[in-house]
Amino acid sequence: MKPAAFEYHDPPTTAEACELLAQLGDEAKPLAGGQSLVPLMNMRLATPRHLIDLRNVAGLSDITISDTSVTMGSMTTQRQIELSPAIRKACPILTEATTHIAHFQIRQRGTIGGSIAHADPAAELPLITVLLDARIVARRADGTRSIPARGFFYSAFVTELDETEIVESIELPRLADGEGWAFEEFARRQGDFALVGVAATVTLTDGKYSGARLAVSGVASAPVLLPVAEHLVGERPSPALYRRVAAAVTAGLTPGGDIHATGEDRRDIAGHLTEVALAAATERALQLTDRPAGRR
Amino acid sequence: MRRVRFELNGQTVEHEVVPRLLLSDFLRDVLGFTGTHVGCEQGACGACTILLNGEAVRSCLMFAVQVDGATIRTIEGVSPDGTSLHPIQQAFHENYGLQCGFCTPGFVMSTCALLAENPAPTESEIRSHLSGNLCRCAGYESIVQSVRQAAWELAGGNCAGKADGDDE
């Protein structure tokens, strides 16, 4: 189908984009890469009266890396992230997650800000921001605010953003030295939205877990954090432990079913991927901490 | 209405467009470049893939107003002289990389982007990069074979027909 008629705006600054949003309210929709919004418009599931295209806004696709964080402008494309050697070094779990998004032709246009603001419950980038507790910087006409990702995603396609705000940047904390990570997902075909995705980090001290984080997508209306640390800290890694912890933390999940998978299947997949992710993250952590002394 | 000015297959184009006009419809219905095919209009099939500033994108997921200042290449601009086949097209021809041909422009444009970035892709890289293009009749084996031959030819192999695996 074809999109309904709309008025097109392409302001050159965030200030002007926010001004327009403030004036037009919920009649307007910001347009980032368009890889979710435009299909929705083509299907007439979305019929905004005004589109505010952010493509000409200066400075929204910069990547800045500091000792503690990776900051990306909201119009940074998924392909830019995927191909950035600096991001691969500073936050490899982000690189890995990004390569799972759709197909390279989609990632060429799709942006991190668009993905965060759209908030599909199966999407990769919201999952990573929740895992690492990123800060999402939102701007409106009268100022900016920094929102913790763990308080950002309410439900499918519903976020803390109000209709006069645009995402300006996303600040992801870097992984700590020695922190192992893993990103696993299951989709029926390459490029499909995953049925379930799992992202995990673990830290080991003297052969025992001293910290762990794990988040899952596709099992609720927003990414969920699972309390793996309370099961892992103080324990020594073993396949039996991964299995036990995976079963324990996913037992309470109650995903809904749809034409792609039943709720039970999704919970089973979440359990299996959690086990796989804990093993893979632990393997990476061991490689990082087992380096000979004097070599970092 | 908005006026856009951009480069299409080496020619400067200037045109008035309404905002709701999809780039795919602009190319086909307004400018007459019907080689870009429209399968699903929701980004799933890849038939409408074009090169925007050298990168493969879905033309059904963009509006014509957004191409102001851009450089676009469609399947019509792939041939080096407008009549002979580009090595990628030649390889699809020789390897039966198509049957009905509906998906072919999208496959060729995705292959152009793939080989520009990675001139010697492995088979799994080819399959991964072409996973966003759907073909419902040729099957994918002959398409993968076509891309392998094209890569080999473009790398200077220059020996048409010698693409059935002897290059490993």
How would you describe this structure in keywords?
heterodimer, A: 296 residues, alpha+beta, Uridine Diphospho-n-acetylenolpyruvylglucosamine Reductase, domain 2, Uridine Diphospho-n-acetylenolpyruvylglucosamine Reductase, domain 3, Enolase-like, domain 1, 3 domains, 5-stranded antiparallel beta sheet, 4-stranded antiparallel beta sheet, globular, B: 168 residues, 5 helices, 5 strands, disordered C terminus
Brief summary:
Chain A is of the alpha+beta class. Chain A has 11 helices and 14 strands. The longest helix of chain A has 27 residues.
What does this structure look like?
- The complex is a heterodimer of chains A (296) and B (168).
- Chain A is built from 11 helices and 14 strands.
- Chain A is an alpha+beta fold.
- Chain A has 3 domains: 7-53, Uridine Diphospho-n-acetylenolpyruvylglucosamine Reductase, domain 2 (2-Layer Sandwich), CATH 3.30.43.10; 63-173, Uridine Diphospho-n-acetylenolpyruvylglucosamine Reductase, domain 3 (2-Layer Sandwich); 180-289, 2-Layer Sandwich (Enolase-like, domain 1).
- In chain A, helix 10 (239-250) crosses helix 11.
- The mean pLDDT of chain A is 95.
- A 5-stranded mixed sheet of chain B has the order 2-1-5-3-4, with helices on one face.
- Mean pLDDT of chain B is 93; it is low at 159-168.
- Helix content of chain B is 30%, strand content 15%.
- With 168 residues, chain B is an alpha+beta fold.
- Chain B has helices at 23-30, 87-94, 104-117, 123-129, 141-154; strands at 2-8, 11-17, 49-52, 55-58, 71-73.
- Chain B contains 5 helices and 5 strands, in the order E-E-H-E-E-E-H-H-H-H.
- The chains are: A alpha+beta (296), B alpha+beta (168).
- Chains A and B meet through helix 2 and helix 6 of A and strand 4 of B.
Detail the topology: elements first, then pairings:
The complex is a heterodimer of chains A (296) and B (168).
Chain A: E1 7-9, H1 14-24, E2 28-31, H2 37-42, E3 50-53, E4 63-65, E5 69-73, H3 78-83, H4 85-90, H5 92-99, H6 104-107, H7 112-118, H8 124-132, E6 135-140, E7 143-148, E8 153-155, E9 158-159, E10 166-173, E11 180-186, E12 196-205, E13 208-217, E14 224-225, H9 229-232, H10 239-250, H11 263-289
Parallel strand pairs in A: 1-3, 2-3
Antiparallel strand pairs in A: 4-5, 5-10, 6-7, 6-10, 8-9, 11-12, 12-13, 13-14
Helix pairs in contact in A: 10-11
Chain B: E1 2-8, E2 11-17, H1 23-30, E3 49-52, E4 55-58, E5 71-73, H2 87-94, H3 104-117, H4 123-129, H5 141-154
Parallel strand pairs in B: 1-5
Antiparallel strand pairs in B: 1-2, 3-4, 3-5
